[in-house]
Amino acid sequence: MALPPPKQPQQIGIEVPPDLQPAYANLALIAHAPAEFVLDFARLLPGEGKATVTSRVIMTPIGIKLFAQALTENIARFETTFGPIKLPSGGPTLADSLFRPFQPPPGEPPKEPPKEPPKTT
């Protein structure tokens, strides 16, 4: 008995709505439960003590593992083309390195906040 020929992979059309607003994120929070992973992408601006979540993505464990594999493959391709991505160092954790308060360059005095003009009555 002959086996049926393997099915060709199905092409999936991707549509990006013209009004889709991109969301910049420089911070990701990851939570998980037995059936899902929750990825909150946030933006943390210098000098602000609070991050703003701009997008939330919920994926299955299989989906997140495939996503991690795709990221690994794409990072390897990126580094082959553009060179290694250098991670910052300087704190006990990566988050400490990336999100420490702004430090002026050596020899430059710290900037003082602008003074409010005097109130007139």
Structure description:
It is a single chain. This protein has 121 residues and is of the alpha+beta class. The chain has a domain of 66 residues. Helices cover 22% and strands 19% of the residues. The protein has 2 helices and 3 strands; from the N terminus they run βββαα. A hairpin with a 2-residue loop joins strand 1 and strand 2. The termini are far apart.
Strand content: 15-25%
Described by strand count, sense and barrel closure, the largest sheet is: 3 strands, antiparallel
Categorize the overall geometry.
elongated
| Uncertain stretches | none
- Total helical segments: 2
- Output the helix-strand order: EEEHH
Structural class: alpha+beta
Mean pLDDT: 84
Number of strands: 3
Report the radius of gyration as a whole number of Å.
Answer: 23 Å
| Residues in helices, as a percent range | 10-25%
Q: Termini, distance in Å?
A: 97 Å
Strands in their spatial order, largest beta sheet? 1-2-3
